[in-house]
Design brief:
This is Enoyl-CoA hydratase/carnithine racemase. InterPro entries: ClpP/crotonase-like_dom_sf, Enoyl-CoA_hydra/iso. With 250 residues, this protein is of the alpha/beta class. The protein contains 12 helices and 9 strands. Bound molecules: coenzyme A (COA).
């Protein structure tokens, strides 16, 4: 149950059905530095070993103000080719169980890309999404150039990435980028309720649904194979019998 042990840049709360991760470098507006990347990889490793839901948020009213610009300044071609952030965010996107980003305040640059890599985003009223990378002489190379287009459409992605448009919470909601906007003070509670709802589903069914949803192109064979696994599961039989028995007894 405890949080934070052994982490320098994150607060981590482990529960039976979920892990709650708070990006926690508030003095740098939770900018994602190498230590945070390493620690998020450690969290991913734990979630791959023992799949659970992930709730990701930021400390002190900010999600994350991007990759750490101090470190970016020193990075060269080799670091870019190593895909320091893109590989982490891909790993987050491929986590076995659903992930929810609870975003209040700034989610800029790499912070926005990390939120884009999650399965569902909830916004506090103060949330602002943006990708100001070209202003710093670089591009948003950790997923924004394709994930944002998938989530909100190419037109919106071009407005954000080329036009420097920032999306506030209401705009993000209208564009479907976030599922819901709630007052900042209610954001975590609302996110936990969403995870509670997810946790009531069969974990194996959630896991396979996520895998199939994320498969590219039409994939009826993958759907059938995933269903074949689930149809044979004890959990499916128990859940369906419980539903039918309840009907019979009412
Ligand atoms: N990397 C490194 N440090 C960062 C940072 C980042 N991405 N974002 C903020 N910080 C640091 C600032 O340098 C400042 O440090 P200091 O106190 O030692 O001077 C501290 O966090 C607070 O930032 P400040 O700009 O004073 O806070 P603010 O609340 O006025 O503004 C932001 C918040 C997010 C609007 C502003 O910090 C910002 O524009 N950050 C950069 C966003 C960006 O370009 N991200 C893309 C990176 S690729």
């Amino acid at each position: 149950m405890s949080g934070g042990a052994g982490y320098e840049t994150l607060l981590v709360e482990e529960r039976d059905d979920r892990v709650v991760v708070t990006l926690n470098r508030p003095r740098a507006r939770n900018a994602i530095n190498a230590a945070m990347v390493e620690e998020l990889h450690a969290v991913c490793a734990g979630l791959e070993r023992r799949p659970r839901l992930l709730l990701l948020t930021g400390a002190e009213g900010v999600f994350a103000a991007g990759a750490d610009i101090q470190e970016l300044l020193e990075r060269g071609r080799e670091e870019a080719l190593a895909g320091i952030n893109s590989r982490l965010f891909d790993r987050v996107a491929r986590l076995p169980m659903p992930t929810v980003a609870a975003v209040d305040g700034y989610a800029l640059g790499g912070g926005a890309e990390l939120a884009y890599a999650c399965d569902v985003r909830l916004a506090g009223e103060s949330a602002v999404f943006g990708n100001p990378e070209p202003g710093l002489g670089i591009l948003a190379a950790a997923g924004a150039c394709w994930r944002l287009a998938e989530l909100a459409g190419v037109s919106v992605a071009k407005q954000v990435l080329l036009g420097g448009r920032r999306l506030d919470a209401a705009e993000a909601l209208r564009l479907g980028l976030v599922a819901e906007v709630v007052p900042d003070g209610e954001l975590l509670g609302r996110a936990h309720r969403l995870l509670d709802r997810m946790a009531r589903s069969a974990p194996g069914a959630l896991r396979l649904t996520k895998l199939v949803l994320d498969a590219r192109g039409p994939h009826p064979l993958a759907d059938d194979l995933a269903q074949a696994i689930l149809f044979e599961s004890e959990e499916k039989r128990d859940r369906m019998r419980a539903f039918l028995d309840k009907g019979a007894s009412s």
